[in-house]
């Protein structure tokens, strides 16, 4: 969706930790925003990390950003964006990603030319894109012992050195299968370009909003990825195995036991990403997955 009527006043900055030279980039962004008349605040961890350089900028918790900020700019890689997106999802704060990481599937604005892109977005010319999240609850003897939120994926996996895990999977209270494997990835469309892709899962366009389920090194070679409706409720039960953990965007809850259950469904919260007006999901796939590259002398029409 292209929008041209947004008004922003207070803008929160969240910055990747421990990045060489990041203070200089942040300084230039702060100067750019203040010159445009915007009030700039820092996410609280960013404020702690950059305190010696930016003592005059107010620090805010996620809840305070949700209550007071009109927009959040994330400077870092996709991991930084995932962490901030999970915190701000309940507050519906739009997010802009400036890539200071490696891949940059969801932090899509490069440092080079970022001020032109930011100027256009802040002026109201951008594409707004909503992404879904997953929420999960770990149940032990019917009682919830852990809650998690994931932008990319929920992963149930064996520990290093442990043997295969056996999982029972039900979807919408219907038995699907018992699976022996190294684990199982339950992914959003956003996460379909992450771990799920490396495990052989399909790319899922974000507009589809489905849920991708990808086994990790399954014992039965016929066990394949499947795309489920976004309304599905998935129950994964630990039948047997040891050193099993569940990760929500790689945030680990370990020490799962046999008969523990992980119940996963679409979260009621969404994330609203703002992209430059010329942004294209397919351009991102071409650039990040190198679809437009060929071995020397191959793939070219004469």
From TrEMBL:
Residues of the active site: 78 (proton acceptor)
Gene Ontology cellular component annotations, sorted alphabetically: cytoplasm
Positions that bind NAD(+): 78-79, 152-153, 180, 182, 193-198, 217, 251
Known catalytic reactions: NAD(+) + ATP = ADP + NADP(+) + H(+)
Compartment(s): Cytoplasm
A GO molecular-function annotation: metal ion binding
Pfam family, one: NAD_kinase
HAMAP family: NAD_kinase (MF_00361)
Function as written in the Swiss-Prot or TrEMBL entry: Involved in the regulation of the intracellular balance of NAD and NADP, and is a key enzyme in the biosynthesis of NADP. Catalyzes specifically the phosphorylation on 2'-hydroxyl of the adenosine moiety of NAD to yield NADP.
Recorded family membership: Belongs to the NAD kinase family.
Protein's UniProt name: NAD kinase
Source species: Duganella phyllosphaerae
